[in-house]
Design a protein that fits this description.
The protein has helices spanning 33-39, 94-103, 122-125, 196-205, 212-226, 247-256, 274-280, 309-327, 341-347; strands at 2-8, 20-27, 47-49, 56-58, 62-69, 74-79, 83-89, 128-129, 132-133, 138-145, 150-155, 176-186, 235-238, 244-246, 263-264, 269-271, 287-288, 291-293, 300-303, 336-338. By secondary structure, the chain is of the alpha+beta class. Strand 15 (263-264) and strand 16 form a beta hairpin.
Protein backbone atom coordinates (compact mmCIF):
# COMPACT_ATOMS: atom_id res chain seq x y z
CA UNK A 1 0.00 0.00 0.00
CA UNK A 2 1.17 3.52 -0.79
CA UNK A 3 0.00 6.55 1.15
CA UNK A 4 0.49 10.21 0.19
CA UNK A 5 -0.54 13.65 1.45
CA UNK A 6 -1.39 16.81 -0.51
CA UNK A 7 -1.81 14.97 -3.80
CA UNK A 8 -2.29 16.70 -7.17
CA UNK A 9 -5.68 15.90 -8.72
CA UNK A 10 -4.35 16.24 -12.26
CA UNK A 11 -3.49 12.53 -12.54
CA UNK A 12 -6.70 11.34 -10.89
CA UNK A 13 -9.22 12.19 -13.61
CA UNK A 14 -9.26 12.23 -17.40
CA UNK A 15 -10.23 15.92 -17.29
CA UNK A 16 -6.81 16.58 -15.68
CA UNK A 17 -8.06 19.60 -13.76
CA UNK A 18 -5.76 21.31 -11.25
CA UNK A 19 -6.26 21.12 -7.51
CA UNK A 20 -5.26 18.88 -4.62
CA UNK A 21 -6.64 16.15 -2.42
CA UNK A 22 -5.76 16.03 1.26
CA UNK A 23 -4.73 12.35 1.09
CA UNK A 24 -4.43 9.50 -1.38
CA UNK A 25 -3.85 5.77 -0.98
CA UNK A 26 -3.04 3.06 -3.53
CA UNK A 27 -4.08 -0.46 -2.49
CA UNK A 28 -2.60 -3.46 -4.30
CA UNK A 29 -4.57 -6.20 -2.52
CA UNK A 30 -7.85 -6.32 -0.56
CA UNK A 31 -6.05 -7.56 2.56
CA UNK A 32 -4.50 -4.07 2.83
CA UNK A 33 -7.91 -2.46 3.46
CA UNK A 34 -8.08 -3.17 7.23
CA UNK A 35 -4.63 -1.60 7.53
CA UNK A 36 -5.75 1.38 5.46
CA UNK A 37 -8.77 1.89 7.69
CA UNK A 38 -6.55 2.06 10.77
CA UNK A 39 -4.00 4.33 9.12
CA UNK A 40 -6.21 7.07 7.72
CA UNK A 41 -8.69 9.37 9.44
CA UNK A 42 -11.53 7.74 7.50
CA UNK A 43 -14.25 8.65 9.98
CA UNK A 44 -13.45 12.36 10.02
CA UNK A 45 -12.88 13.07 6.33
CA UNK A 46 -14.83 12.31 3.12
CA UNK A 47 -13.46 9.48 1.01
CA UNK A 48 -13.75 8.59 -2.64
CA UNK A 49 -12.79 5.43 -4.49
CA UNK A 50 -11.35 6.23 -7.93
CA UNK A 51 -10.43 3.89 -10.77
CA UNK A 52 -9.05 5.82 -13.73
CA UNK A 53 -11.23 8.88 -13.06
CA UNK A 54 -12.76 8.77 -16.55
CA UNK A 55 -16.20 9.84 -15.30
CA UNK A 56 -15.33 12.32 -12.52
CA UNK A 57 -14.95 16.09 -12.44
CA UNK A 58 -13.44 17.85 -9.43
CA UNK A 59 -14.82 21.37 -9.23
CA UNK A 60 -12.46 22.29 -6.37
CA UNK A 61 -9.83 20.80 -4.06
CA UNK A 62 -10.91 17.52 -2.48
CA UNK A 63 -10.73 17.77 1.33
CA UNK A 64 -10.71 14.03 1.96
CA UNK A 65 -9.06 10.78 0.92
CA UNK A 66 -8.82 9.35 -2.59
CA UNK A 67 -8.42 5.57 -2.72
CA UNK A 68 -7.32 3.73 -5.85
CA UNK A 69 -7.76 -0.07 -5.79
CA UNK A 70 -5.22 -1.78 -8.03
CA UNK A 71 -6.55 -5.33 -7.52
CA UNK A 72 -6.14 -7.59 -10.56
CA UNK A 73 -7.38 -11.01 -11.61
CA UNK A 74 -10.14 -12.79 -13.58
CA UNK A 75 -11.52 -16.05 -12.20
CA UNK A 76 -14.09 -18.50 -13.57
CA UNK A 77 -16.40 -19.33 -10.64
CA UNK A 78 -19.05 -21.53 -12.23
CA UNK A 79 -19.91 -22.98 -15.61
CA UNK A 80 -23.13 -24.52 -16.94
CA UNK A 81 -24.25 -25.50 -20.41
CA UNK A 82 -25.71 -22.03 -20.98
CA UNK A 83 -23.68 -19.58 -18.91
CA UNK A 84 -20.61 -18.84 -16.82
CA UNK A 85 -20.10 -16.82 -13.66
CA UNK A 86 -16.90 -14.82 -13.82
CA UNK A 87 -15.36 -12.96 -10.87
CA UNK A 88 -13.21 -9.96 -11.75
CA UNK A 89 -11.00 -7.81 -9.51
CA UNK A 90 -12.05 -4.17 -9.38
CA UNK A 91 -8.79 -2.79 -10.76
CA UNK A 92 -8.92 -4.72 -14.02
CA UNK A 93 -9.23 -2.41 -17.06
CA UNK A 94 -12.77 -2.71 -18.42
CA UNK A 95 -11.85 -2.97 -22.11
CA UNK A 96 -9.23 -5.62 -21.39
CA UNK A 97 -11.83 -7.65 -19.52
CA UNK A 98 -14.28 -7.43 -22.44
CA UNK A 99 -11.53 -8.62 -24.78
CA UNK A 100 -10.73 -11.52 -22.42
CA UNK A 101 -14.41 -12.50 -22.42
CA UNK A 102 -14.41 -12.81 -26.20
CA UNK A 103 -11.23 -14.87 -26.20
CA UNK A 104 -12.87 -17.28 -23.73
CA UNK A 105 -16.21 -17.33 -25.59
CA UNK A 106 -18.08 -15.60 -22.76
CA UNK A 107 -20.65 -13.43 -24.49
CA UNK A 108 -22.82 -10.42 -23.72
CA UNK A 109 -20.43 -7.53 -23.06
CA UNK A 110 -19.07 -7.00 -26.58
CA UNK A 111 -21.28 -3.91 -27.12
CA UNK A 112 -19.45 -2.29 -24.20
CA UNK A 113 -16.01 -2.48 -25.80
CA UNK A 114 -13.56 0.41 -25.43
CA UNK A 115 -15.45 2.08 -22.58
CA UNK A 116 -12.71 3.63 -20.43
CA UNK A 117 -12.28 2.88 -16.77
CA UNK A 118 -12.04 -0.17 -14.54
CA UNK A 119 -14.30 -3.12 -13.82
CA UNK A 120 -14.99 -1.74 -10.34
CA UNK A 121 -16.44 1.45 -11.81
CA UNK A 122 -18.79 -0.36 -14.20
CA UNK A 123 -21.60 -1.06 -11.70
CA UNK A 124 -21.18 2.35 -10.05
CA UNK A 125 -22.33 4.14 -13.19
CA UNK A 126 -24.21 1.18 -14.71
CA UNK A 127 -22.20 1.74 -17.88
CA UNK A 128 -23.90 1.08 -21.19
CA UNK A 129 -23.60 1.54 -24.92
CA UNK A 130 -25.25 0.44 -28.16
CA UNK A 131 -28.31 -1.10 -26.53
CA UNK A 132 -26.59 -2.97 -23.67
CA UNK A 133 -26.12 -2.06 -19.98
CA UNK A 134 -23.84 -3.76 -17.48
CA UNK A 135 -26.85 -4.36 -15.22
CA UNK A 136 -28.06 -7.02 -17.68
CA UNK A 137 -25.10 -9.26 -16.75
CA UNK A 138 -24.13 -8.12 -13.25
CA UNK A 139 -24.69 -10.73 -10.54
CA UNK A 140 -23.08 -9.30 -7.39
CA UNK A 141 -20.24 -7.20 -6.02
CA UNK A 142 -17.91 -7.77 -3.08
CA UNK A 143 -17.20 -4.63 -1.06
CA UNK A 144 -15.20 -3.47 1.91
CA UNK A 145 -17.69 -1.70 4.18
CA UNK A 146 -15.98 1.21 5.95
CA UNK A 147 -18.73 1.42 8.58
CA UNK A 148 -18.42 -2.21 9.73
CA UNK A 149 -14.78 -2.77 8.67
CA UNK A 150 -15.83 -6.01 6.97
CA UNK A 151 -16.04 -7.55 3.53
CA UNK A 152 -19.53 -8.41 2.26
CA UNK A 153 -21.31 -9.36 -0.95
CA UNK A 154 -24.16 -7.28 -2.33
CA UNK A 155 -26.51 -8.75 -4.93
CA UNK A 156 -27.10 -6.74 -8.10
CA UNK A 157 -30.80 -6.41 -7.21
CA UNK A 158 -29.85 -4.42 -4.10
CA UNK A 159 -27.82 -1.80 -5.94
CA UNK A 160 -30.69 0.28 -7.34
CA UNK A 161 -29.29 0.04 -10.84
CA UNK A 162 -30.86 2.64 -13.12
CA UNK A 163 -29.92 4.39 -16.33
CA UNK A 164 -26.29 5.46 -15.77
CA UNK A 165 -26.70 5.41 -12.00
CA UNK A 166 -26.85 3.22 -8.90
CA UNK A 167 -26.76 3.48 -5.12
CA UNK A 168 -22.97 3.23 -5.46
CA UNK A 169 -22.81 6.83 -6.72
CA UNK A 170 -25.51 8.11 -4.33
CA UNK A 171 -26.26 6.63 -0.91
CA UNK A 172 -23.26 4.25 -0.90
CA UNK A 173 -20.75 6.74 -2.34
CA UNK A 174 -17.68 6.77 -0.09
CA UNK A 175 -19.19 4.16 2.24
CA UNK A 176 -17.98 1.05 0.42
CA UNK A 177 -15.07 0.05 -1.80
CA UNK A 178 -15.66 -2.58 -4.50
CA UNK A 179 -13.04 -5.33 -4.47
CA UNK A 180 -14.56 -7.83 -6.93
CA UNK A 181 -17.44 -7.97 -9.41
CA UNK A 182 -19.29 -11.08 -10.58
CA UNK A 183 -20.94 -11.36 -13.98
CA UNK A 184 -23.17 -14.06 -15.43
CA UNK A 185 -22.25 -14.30 -19.12
CA UNK A 186 -23.51 -16.43 -21.99
CA UNK A 187 -21.73 -19.39 -23.57
CA UNK A 188 -23.64 -19.07 -26.84
CA UNK A 189 -23.73 -15.80 -28.81
CA UNK A 190 -26.92 -13.78 -28.54
CA UNK A 191 -25.69 -10.73 -30.38
CA UNK A 192 -27.40 -7.36 -29.92
CA UNK A 193 -26.88 -5.26 -33.01
CA UNK A 194 -30.26 -3.55 -33.39
CA UNK A 195 -29.00 -0.16 -32.18
CA UNK A 196 -29.35 1.98 -35.35
CA UNK A 197 -25.83 3.38 -35.55
CA UNK A 198 -24.27 0.00 -34.85
CA UNK A 199 -26.58 -1.75 -37.32
CA UNK A 200 -25.62 0.69 -40.08
CA UNK A 201 -21.92 0.21 -39.41
CA UNK A 202 -22.21 -3.58 -39.46
CA UNK A 203 -24.34 -3.57 -42.62
CA UNK A 204 -21.71 -1.50 -44.39
CA UNK A 205 -19.06 -4.09 -43.55
CA UNK A 206 -20.88 -7.31 -44.41
CA UNK A 207 -24.26 -8.74 -45.33
CA UNK A 208 -23.93 -11.78 -43.06
CA UNK A 209 -25.28 -12.02 -39.52
CA UNK A 210 -22.69 -10.34 -37.27
CA UNK A 211 -20.77 -12.35 -34.71
CA UNK A 212 -19.84 -11.02 -31.23
CA UNK A 213 -16.36 -10.43 -32.61
CA UNK A 214 -17.83 -8.34 -35.45
CA UNK A 215 -19.77 -6.29 -32.93
CA UNK A 216 -16.68 -5.80 -30.76
CA UNK A 217 -14.68 -4.50 -33.71
CA UNK A 218 -17.51 -2.28 -34.97
CA UNK A 219 -18.04 -0.72 -31.53
CA UNK A 220 -14.31 -0.03 -31.18
CA UNK A 221 -14.29 1.59 -34.62
CA UNK A 222 -17.33 3.76 -33.86
CA UNK A 223 -15.97 4.94 -30.53
CA UNK A 224 -12.58 5.77 -32.02
CA UNK A 225 -14.26 7.77 -34.79
CA UNK A 226 -16.53 9.75 -32.47
CA UNK A 227 -14.62 10.21 -29.23
CA UNK A 228 -11.35 12.03 -28.57
CA UNK A 229 -8.46 10.28 -26.84
CA UNK A 230 -8.42 11.74 -23.28
CA UNK A 231 -4.63 11.41 -23.20
CA UNK A 232 -4.42 13.95 -26.00
CA UNK A 233 -7.49 16.06 -25.27
CA UNK A 234 -8.83 15.89 -21.69
CA UNK A 235 -12.48 14.79 -21.50
CA UNK A 236 -14.78 12.39 -19.67
CA UNK A 237 -16.75 11.05 -22.62
CA UNK A 238 -20.45 11.88 -22.54
CA UNK A 239 -20.90 14.78 -20.13
CA UNK A 240 -24.72 14.50 -19.93
CA UNK A 241 -27.13 11.60 -19.72
CA UNK A 242 -29.58 11.05 -22.53
CA UNK A 243 -32.93 12.35 -21.18
CA UNK A 244 -35.59 9.71 -20.52
CA UNK A 245 -39.15 11.08 -20.75
CA UNK A 246 -42.63 9.58 -20.47
CA UNK A 247 -43.62 8.48 -23.95
CA UNK A 248 -46.60 10.83 -24.05
CA UNK A 249 -44.39 13.82 -23.18
CA UNK A 250 -41.77 12.83 -25.76
CA UNK A 251 -44.37 12.43 -28.52
CA UNK A 252 -45.90 15.80 -27.70
CA UNK A 253 -42.43 17.34 -27.89
CA UNK A 254 -41.89 15.78 -31.31
CA UNK A 255 -44.99 17.55 -32.60
CA UNK A 256 -43.07 20.80 -32.15
CA UNK A 257 -39.74 19.32 -33.31
CA UNK A 258 -40.57 16.74 -36.02
CA UNK A 259 -36.95 15.60 -36.45
CA UNK A 260 -36.56 14.75 -32.75
CA UNK A 261 -35.17 11.18 -32.52
CA UNK A 262 -36.86 8.91 -29.96
CA UNK A 263 -35.69 5.49 -28.75
CA UNK A 264 -37.88 3.14 -26.68
CA UNK A 265 -36.87 2.93 -23.02
CA UNK A 266 -39.12 0.44 -21.31
CA UNK A 267 -42.83 0.10 -22.09
CA UNK A 268 -43.89 3.72 -21.55
CA UNK A 269 -40.78 5.90 -21.78
CA UNK A 270 -38.54 7.20 -24.56
CA UNK A 271 -34.89 8.18 -24.61
CA UNK A 272 -33.74 11.30 -26.48
CA UNK A 273 -30.09 11.70 -27.57
CA UNK A 274 -28.65 14.59 -25.60
CA UNK A 275 -26.02 15.04 -28.31
CA UNK A 276 -28.75 15.73 -30.86
CA UNK A 277 -30.31 18.34 -28.57
CA UNK A 278 -26.97 20.09 -28.12
CA UNK A 279 -26.24 19.96 -31.83
CA UNK A 280 -29.57 21.63 -32.60
CA UNK A 281 -28.57 24.39 -30.20
CA UNK A 282 -25.40 25.00 -32.22
CA UNK A 283 -22.85 23.68 -29.73
CA UNK A 284 -21.08 21.08 -31.83
CA UNK A 285 -17.46 22.16 -32.28
CA UNK A 286 -17.97 25.41 -30.37
CA UNK A 287 -15.23 26.62 -28.02
CA UNK A 288 -15.18 29.24 -25.27
CA UNK A 289 -11.72 29.83 -23.85
CA UNK A 290 -10.20 26.65 -22.47
CA UNK A 291 -13.35 24.51 -22.87
CA UNK A 292 -15.32 23.35 -25.87
CA UNK A 293 -17.52 20.71 -27.49
CA UNK A 294 -15.87 17.99 -29.55
CA UNK A 295 -16.57 18.52 -33.27
CA UNK A 296 -17.36 14.83 -33.84
CA UNK A 297 -19.83 14.43 -30.97
CA UNK A 298 -21.81 17.24 -29.35
CA UNK A 299 -22.19 15.33 -26.07
CA UNK A 300 -18.46 15.40 -25.32
CA UNK A 301 -17.00 18.37 -23.44
CA UNK A 302 -13.25 18.74 -23.98
CA UNK A 303 -10.61 21.06 -22.58
CA UNK A 304 -7.82 22.91 -24.35
CA UNK A 305 -4.86 23.80 -22.19
CA UNK A 306 -5.32 23.79 -18.43
CA UNK A 307 -8.99 24.35 -17.76
CA UNK A 308 -10.17 24.38 -14.16
CA UNK A 309 -13.12 22.42 -12.87
CA UNK A 310 -14.91 25.73 -12.40
CA UNK A 311 -14.43 26.64 -16.08
CA UNK A 312 -15.78 23.27 -17.20
CA UNK A 313 -18.84 23.57 -14.98
CA UNK A 314 -19.57 27.10 -16.14
CA UNK A 315 -19.39 25.94 -19.77
CA UNK A 316 -21.56 22.86 -19.11
CA UNK A 317 -24.16 25.06 -17.42
CA UNK A 318 -24.40 27.13 -20.63
CA UNK A 319 -25.05 23.95 -22.61
CA UNK A 320 -27.76 22.87 -20.20
CA UNK A 321 -29.43 26.27 -20.19
CA UNK A 322 -29.61 26.47 -24.00
CA UNK A 323 -31.25 23.02 -24.25
CA UNK A 324 -33.76 23.91 -21.57
CA UNK A 325 -34.67 27.19 -23.24
CA UNK A 326 -35.24 25.55 -26.62
CA UNK A 327 -36.70 22.15 -25.69
CA UNK A 328 -37.79 22.47 -22.05
CA UNK A 329 -35.52 19.54 -21.09
CA UNK A 330 -33.15 19.84 -18.13
CA UNK A 331 -30.05 17.78 -18.89
CA UNK A 332 -28.49 15.81 -16.03
CA UNK A 333 -24.73 15.21 -15.81
CA UNK A 334 -23.48 11.71 -16.44
CA UNK A 335 -20.15 12.80 -15.02
CA UNK A 336 -19.87 12.59 -11.22
CA UNK A 337 -19.23 16.17 -10.08
CA UNK A 338 -17.49 16.84 -6.75
CA UNK A 339 -18.47 18.58 -4.60
CA UNK A 340 -21.94 17.58 -5.72
CA UNK A 341 -23.41 20.92 -4.69
CA UNK A 342 -21.24 22.71 -7.26
CA UNK A 343 -23.47 21.73 -10.17
CA UNK A 344 -26.61 23.08 -8.49
CA UNK A 345 -24.72 26.31 -7.82
CA UNK A 346 -23.92 26.86 -11.50
CA UNK A 347 -27.38 25.82 -12.65
CA UNK A 348 -29.28 28.10 -10.26
Amino acid sequence: MQYQERVSLRRWTSFRTPGRAAYAAFCHHPHELPQLQKLLPLNELPRLVVGTGSNILFAADYPGILIRPLFRGIHLVEQTDDSVIVEVAAGEPWHGFVRTCLRNHWYGLENLALIPGTVGAAPVHNIGAYGVEVSQFLQAICVWDFATAEFRWIAAQELGLEYRSSKLRTSLLGRVLITHVRFRLLRSPQARWDYPELARSLAAESSRTPTPEDIFRAVCRLRQQKLPNPRRLPNAGSFFKNPVLPLSVAEELRKHHPQLPLFPHGPDHAKIPAGWLLEQCGWRGKRLGNVGVWPQHALVVVTYGRATGEEILRFAALLRRSVYERFGIALEPEVLILPQAAWELYCS
